[in-house]
Amino acid sequence: MQRIAWGLAALLALAGPAWSQTAPKPGGPIFDVLTTTGPGPSGTIVALSPDGIAVEPAEGPAKEFATTDLVRLRREAEVVAGEGSYVVLPEGDRLTRARVGSATDATVEVEAQAIGKASVPVDALLGLILKPPADAEAFDALLRKVRTEPRTSEVAWLANGDRVVGSFVGMDDRVVRLQPQDAAAPRELARDGVVAVGFDPALVAYPKPEGPYLELGLIDGSRIGVSGAGLDKGRVSGVSRFKAKVDLPIEAVIQATPRTAAVEYLSERPVDGKSYVPYFDSVRPFQLDASVEGRPLLLNGLTYDRGFGTSSRTLLAFKLKPGDRRFQALVGVDGRAGPSGSVVFRVLTDGKARFASDPLTFRDAPVAVDVDLEGAKLLILATEFGERGDARDWADWAEARIIRTP
User: What is the DSSP string of 78-146?
Assistant: First the structure.
């Protein structure tokens, strides 16, 4: 194995990209590979760089992929729940099971699996959930509020149901300090009574790295964007988007998503048009990166960070750009919908039908969509009534993405 890995590293170095040295642990985790053209071979990750990833299957030589040819690598593993705080970063990134220590108005001391102990800039944060609710639905609702609630200042949500508004001054192990606009001195809130703090989204600075980078999904539920990623002796290293060093075992990684110019997620583009035609009078607006109920997209027992949650009947329209080549997604009825939901998914380009599913329920396996966009100017995603009305038609367009010419 050592000879094979060394030969691979030398070959890849000659090919151009700055591949890292490889020395994976025997019997490392097996990842399923999804490329821009379909599934690739499953195997262990034996080389990793910003420009490419090599996977060694159980039999045969390692397969090398440029990151521009990859959608993601993912393995079957349950997220290991645990106690701790939840650090809410922009664009879906997060640190879970974290220890949040003291803070000033500029930095927060955080200890988490991905970054060890680090000072995280306050302007890189959307919020801190200091006491996550034990109930999953209540937690999802709180996280959604921290991520998406409009606000022009900081907000503290208290365990007694109150809500305190003011500028964040800092905190220690006893109190959280906010400066209300109409007060001369900061207000001190007992930290034990503060469930979450949401920061002013207008002040957030979370720039994307220059060039390709990786999003790493971890076994503890964290997700973090990493630039300069490498693999050495079974450990993944790099630098987070908020400049903290990342160093963790490959066994902690359950998903690696290259972010390159070749793959653009539709939920990161503006929706250029929308239309709702409910079965009765109730309209359920579409949701970004969540089910129509505002919870994580759930298909066949797996959750997905990106996509759209819709209900019947919803039309979403997107203007296409030069270089857009294909539309891809995984579609199905959300796993929490129950037996009543029945949905037909359709994809149209320039008014022409390009894809239509059978009526799907939550019991049906999700369906992969791959539509040619060459020459098209408008993409429409249609969620249609299935075999019944719109009762619990919770339709998920998971990982809806455009494959582009990089």
Answer: -----SSEEEE-GGG-EEEEEEEEEE-SSEEEEEETTTEEEEEEGGG-SEEESS--SSHHHHHHHHHHH
Cβ–Cβ under 8 Å, residues 285 and 383: no
How confident is residue 390, by pLDDT bands cut at 50, 70 and 90?
A: confident
Q: Are residues 197 and 117 in the same domain?
A: yes
Nearest to 280 by CA among 380, 385, 378, 358: 385
Measured distance CA(45)–CA(54) in Å, rounded: 6
Give the CATH number of the domain where residue 400 resides.
2.60.120.1060
Q: If we measure between CA atoms, which residue out of 178, 183, 205 comes closest to residue 194? A: 178
Kindly report, residue by residue over 15-56, the tens digit of the pLDDT. 333 333 334 334 689 999 999 999 999 999 999 999 999 999
| Residue 312 domain-assigned (yes or no) | yes
Residue 291 placed within a domain: yes
Domain that holds residue 270: 264-404
Token pair, residue 392, equals 């619990």
Query: Structure pTM?
Result: 0.90
Average pLDDT of the segment spanning 322-349: 96
399: three-class secondary structure by DSSP = strand
